[in-house]
């Protein structure tokens, strides 16, 4: 009796393990490295993903933001709004990376990855995709009777803990993680900030 009970338990465990393996082999999925990116106008961004599928051979892969009909997807490489600014590279482990250069605020969108296999019905798109927000640098000025504080701001929180650099008449006066710079006397100097080499307009030319 003891032997039969032990044998029964062993068979049950094997059965459950087998089900788990079958389920994992039949998964269609796209996994993105990150699902939200905020970056600056004029900069470069990379979005990465990996994908799985049950069987067959992948015949086509592409990124898209636009879909006009059930099967009418616009491959980003063929989108005239991205002409010359997009590269898509793959690796041997079902990974893909989309690179967009010279970003524009109009590039703000949700980017999805789609792949097609040679199997009947073997098509899949990864939803939700990567939400990209492209913002410009703006400078806010706060003045009191003894000081002026300049704050380099954006419409979304920049990804990656950027370093802000402040310039006074084209010379660096502060390079740190803080987006703010304070000076204490009236001046006719010009000030501007930069993140990753991208500058804001001159913001203060005081009398």
Automatic annotation (TrEMBL):
The lineage of its organism: Eukaryota, Metazoa, Chordata, Craniata, Vertebrata. Residues 1-24 form the signal peptide. Residues 128-207 form the Ig-like domain. PROSITE patterns: IG_LIKE. Gene3D superfamilies: Immunoglobulins. It comes from Oncorhynchus mykiss (Rainbow trout). SUPFAM superfamilies: Immunoglobulin. The keyword Nucleotide-binding does not apply. This is Ig-like domain-containing protein. SMART domains: IG (SM00409). Keywords: Signal.
């Amino acid at each position: 009796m003891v032997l039969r009970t032990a044998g029964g338990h062993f068979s049950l465990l094997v059965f459950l393990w087998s089900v788990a393996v079958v389920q994992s082999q039949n998964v269609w999925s796209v996994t993105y490295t990150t699902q939200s990116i905020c970056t600056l106008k004029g900069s470069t961004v990379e979005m990465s993903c990996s994908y799985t599928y049950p069987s067959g051979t992948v015949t086509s892969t592409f990124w898209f933001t636009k879909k006009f009909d059930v099967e009418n997807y616009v491959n980003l490489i063929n989108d005239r709004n991205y002409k010359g600014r997009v590269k898509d590279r793959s690796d041997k482990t079902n990974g893909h990376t989309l690179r967009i250069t010279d970003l524009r605020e109009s590039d703000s969108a949700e980017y999805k990855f789609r792949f097609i296999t040679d199997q009947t019905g073997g098509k899949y798109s990864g939803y939700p995709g990567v939400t990209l927000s492209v913002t410009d640098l703006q400078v806010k000025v706060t003045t009191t009777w003894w000081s002026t504080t300049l704050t380099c701001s954006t419409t979304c929180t920049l990804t990656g803990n950027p370093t802000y650099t402040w310039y006074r008449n084209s010379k660096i006066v502060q390079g740190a993680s803080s987006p703010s710079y304070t000076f204490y006397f009236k001046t006719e100097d010009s000030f501007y900030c930069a993140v990753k080499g991208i500058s804001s307009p001159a913001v203060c030319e005081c009398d």
